[in-house]
From TrEMBL:
EC number, UniProt record: 4.2.2.29
Gene: mltG
Organism expressing this protein natively: Pontibacillus litoralis JSM 072002
Ranges in a coiled coil: none
Function: Functions as a peptidoglycan terminase that cleaves nascent peptidoglycan strands endolytically to terminate their elongation.
Predominant location category: membrane
One BP term from GO: peptidoglycan biosynthetic process
Protein known as: Endolytic murein transglycosylase
Reactions catalysed according to its record: a peptidoglycan chain = a peptidoglycan chain with N-acetyl-1,6-anhydromuramyl-[peptide] at the reducing end + a peptidoglycan chain with N-acetylglucosamine at the non-reducing end
Record key words, sorted: Cell membrane, Cell wall biogenesis/degradation, Lyase, Membrane, Transmembrane, Transmembrane helix
Membrane spanning residue stretches: 21-45
Record site feature (Important for catalytic activity), residues: 254
Record family assignment: Belongs to the transglycosylase MltG family.
């Protein structure tokens, strides 16, 4: 009987030792896993906090759109290889309690630290001074834009115009900007495919040897940034992007004052609704291909898909670039019964409901 009890005790002790051994091994494994995981996390975070490449000072220009939150900014920075990890960057910002980042265009490098990047975003200052700063006003044609760049940068007017009229390049841009450019710009009757799509703004460039393609794509990026958020509103007006850009260019040329733009837009919509030709003089001047202080009756007879005295509806394409409020006027025209307006030399615009009233205003203000 005693030997039996001794055997049972021996078995229990063996089981206890085995359990203790298993528990010990498991705890050791867990501790090792925790230490390994901790070390991995430490080195992972440490790596993510370092510059992407301390030896690379190549400028990288990015755009932080208005209204971007920290997550959006972090994603843009990671996509452009300015930071190693967007999640770690967000946690770092939260840890340091940073905020009030500024929208705008920045030039960073892969060698910048997170603190340098954060400081730039807070101050709105770029990391490097631009080589060229070029302002493109509203209401300018491609030809005029090319002339401005030829005076302000190393890109000649000839090179710029050859680039924006290169069919293969235009095809590639349609693929690159599918939400902005469409096959409409390939219409054989359009004078210059990108007319109207190079947005009016001030642009900074950081390369000495600038290429025309860099200019074009920077301007298209800006256009895309302005137009894309308005897609749904444009669709509600039963317009394509090309039609909206075209109408915005007409409003830009007809209304020098912002307060007149929505009213003139309303007039254009009224005429379109009644199948009346738009009869806007800037389209005649564009069709003629020259500037004149006054459009003559004989000018109205020019045969052109741009001449809105001859064609019904909108012209075949835009006649200039435009400002954002001209596009806003397309989306939100001011309702009225007006069908005519007269732009006086002093900048005032006079509206009328019928042709008789319009003729009186013409006599009064233009003759």
């Amino acid at each position: 009987m005693s030997s039996s009890n001794e055997g049972m005790n021996h078995n229990r002790n063996s089981e206890r030792r085995a359990v203790r051994k298993i528990v010990g091994i498991t705890l050791a494994a867990l501790i090792l896993l925790i230490i390994t995981g901790g070390l991995f996390a430490f080195f992972y975070i440490q790596s993510a906090l370092q510059p992407v490449d301390s030896n690379d000072d190549t400028p990288i220009t990015i755009e932080i759109p208005i209204g971007s939150n920290v997550s959006a900014i972090a994603s843009i920075l990671e996509e452009n290889e300015i930071i190693n990890n967007d999640r770690v960057f967000r946690y770092y910002i939260k840890f340091k309690n940073e905020s009030d980042f500024q929208a705008g265009e920045y030039t960073f490098t892969k060698a910048m630290t997170l603190d340098d990047i954060i400081e730039s975003l807070k101050s709105g200052k770029v990391a490097k001074e631009p080589v060229y700063t070029v302002t493109i006003p509203e209401g300018k044609t491609i030809d005029q834009i090319a002339g401005i760049y030829s005076k302000k940068t190393n890109v000649t007017k000839k090179d710029f115009l050859e680039t924006v009229n290169d069919p293969a390049y235009i095809e590639s841009l349609i693929d690159q900007y599918p939400n902005l450019l469409s096959e409409d710009i390939l219409d054989a009757e359009i004078r210059t495919p990108l007319e109207g799509y190079l947005f009016a703004a001030t642009y900074d460039f950081y390369e000495e040897d600038l290429k025309a393609e860099q200019i074009v794509e920077k301007m298209l990026n800006k256009s895309n940034q302005i137009v894309q958020p308005k897609h749904k509103e444009i669709e509600k007006k039963d317009l394509t992007i090309h039609e909206a850009v075209t109408l915005a260019s007409l409003i830009e040329k007809e209304a020098p004052k912002e307060e007149d733009r929505k009213k003139i837009s309303g007039v254009f919509y009224n005429r379109l609704d009644q199948a009346m030709p738009l009869q806007t003089d800037p389209t005649v001047l564009y069709a003629l291909g020259k500037h004149k202080d006054r459009v003559l009756y004989k000018d109205l007879e020019v045969e052109s898909p741009y001449n809105t005295y001859k064609v019904k509806g909108l012209p075949v394409g835009p006649i200039s670039n435009f400002g954002e409020n001209a596009l806003d006027a397309v989306i939100d025209p001011e309702p009225s019964e007006y069908l005519y307006f007269v732009a006086a030399p002093n900048g005032e615009i006079y509206y009328s409901n019928n042709y008789e009233e319009h003729q009186k205003l013409v006599e009064e203000h233009l003759r």
